[in-house]
């Protein structure tokens, strides 16, 4: 175990060198700029090359980068390329535990890890991780993670995470998360989260969250989806976008430039109802609650959820088609007593911030008939119960025609 720990420590040190070289590049480029005022011709070109961060990444002091068709190694510096491993670009590379090279041009495989100081073209396979300091053009497959300090064009597959500091043009598939601080063109799929620091053209699919800092042309599917502008759709429990040309579908969808209203209404069961609509007129979510005060008794109240659509009929007139379900109770919620509604009505905008609406409802009540404490349905209206059915497991249902009317504040 002590030997294995040393191997992993060496791998971590080598992987860090690519990061360290990038951090030093800014200071060294300033030194080159100062030196350029004192050097001319060949002297200036040599000095500039010596301070080029790419040159420093690919070469070790006193050595040139070379290319070999094939190499074998046990661990870094213990193999056919010897201590010059960091200066060699391999066409094909086989590493028993881990490998370290200036780059790969066709194929690389390791039991534990692969570390390339420069570009990787082709296929790279590792039991634990792949670290590339340059571009990836091909396929990376690792048991834990793939890390790349430049662009990716191709496929990254990892048991845990895929990480790149450049753009992605292809597919990232990970058990936990995919990360790119720049644009993604293709697909990100993960068990937990996907992140794109700029634009997304394609799809993000995650078990928990998808985040795109700028624009999405395509789709986001996850429990939580976030984007600035969406040209496509979002599907999740919670969706957020500043603007959207498509439709968000979820339990709660908020489009900043979309459709948000606060509604105050009455129906045949409850005289006072408050609802919040959010989403787009093409498809929106409804959260609502209502109450009916009772003299010398606990109030009758309800809470529920619904969805709807509101196509435009005229200049200031919209059609509302909504389906909702609410639990009706007196005091505590003790037994099933659902009132399910289908509403079709007209919405007339009186001004930019105010609208009135009204329309009929078709109501289906499903309740536990073994419970004697259900509130009375109607106290100030008297609609006719059309039908009542009894089912096994103490469940009954009844339906009637009703109404809903009120006003909305935008």
UniProtKB/TrEMBL annotation:
Keywords: Signal. Residues 1-23 form the signal peptide. The keyword Signal applies. This is Porin.
């Amino acid at each position: 175990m002590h030997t294995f720990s040393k191997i992993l420590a060496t791998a971590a040190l080598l992987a860090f060198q690519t990061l360290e070289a990038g951090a030093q590049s800014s200071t060294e480029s300033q030194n080159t700029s100062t030196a350029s005022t004192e050097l001319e011709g060949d002297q200036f070109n040599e000095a500039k090359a010596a301070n080029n961060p790419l040159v420093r990444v690919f070469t070790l002091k006193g050595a040139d980068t070379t290319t070999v068709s094939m190499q074998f190694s046990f661990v870094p510096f213990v193999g056919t390329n010897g201590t010059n491993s960091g200066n060699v670009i391999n066409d094909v590379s086989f590493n028993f535990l881990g490998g370290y090279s200036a780059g790969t041009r066709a194929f690389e495989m390791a039991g534990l890890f692969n570390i390339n100081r420069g570009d990787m073209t082709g296929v790279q396979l590792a039991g634990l991780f792949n670290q590339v300091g340059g571009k990836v053009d091909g396929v990376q497959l690792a048991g834990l993670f793939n890390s790349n300090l430049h662009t990716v064009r191709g496929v990254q597959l990892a048991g845990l995470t895929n990480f790149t500091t450049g753009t992605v043009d292809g597919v990232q598939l990970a058990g936990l998360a995919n990360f790119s601080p720049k644009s993604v063109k293709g697909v990100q799929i993960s068990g937990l989260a996907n992140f794109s620091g700029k634009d997304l053209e394609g799809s993000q699919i995650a078990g928990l969250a998808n985040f795109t800092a700028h624009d999405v042309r395509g789709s986001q599917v996850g429990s939580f989806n976030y984007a600035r502008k969406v040209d496509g759709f979002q599907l999740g429990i919670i969706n957020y976008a500043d603007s959207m040309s498509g439709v968000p579908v979820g339990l709660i969808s908020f489009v900043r430039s979309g459709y948000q209203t606060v509604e105050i209404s009455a129906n045949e069961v409850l005289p006072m109802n408050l609802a919040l609509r959010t989403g787009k007129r093409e498809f929106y979510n409804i959260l609502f609650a209502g109450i009916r005060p009772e003299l010398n008794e606990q109030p009758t109240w309800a809470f529920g959820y619904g969805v709807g659509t509101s196509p435009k009929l005229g200049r200031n007139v919209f059609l509302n088609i909504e389906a909702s379900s609410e639990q009706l109770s007196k005091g505590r919620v003790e037994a099933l007593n659902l009132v399910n509604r289908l509403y079709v009505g007209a919405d007339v905008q009186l001004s930019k911030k105010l609208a009135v609406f009204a329309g009929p409802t078709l109501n289906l009540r499903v309740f536990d008939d073994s419970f004697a404490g259900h509130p009375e349905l109607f106290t100030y209206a008297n609609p006719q119960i059309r039908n009542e059915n009894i089912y096994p497991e103490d469940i009954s249902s009844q339906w009637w025609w009703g109404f809903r009317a009120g006003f909305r504040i935008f």
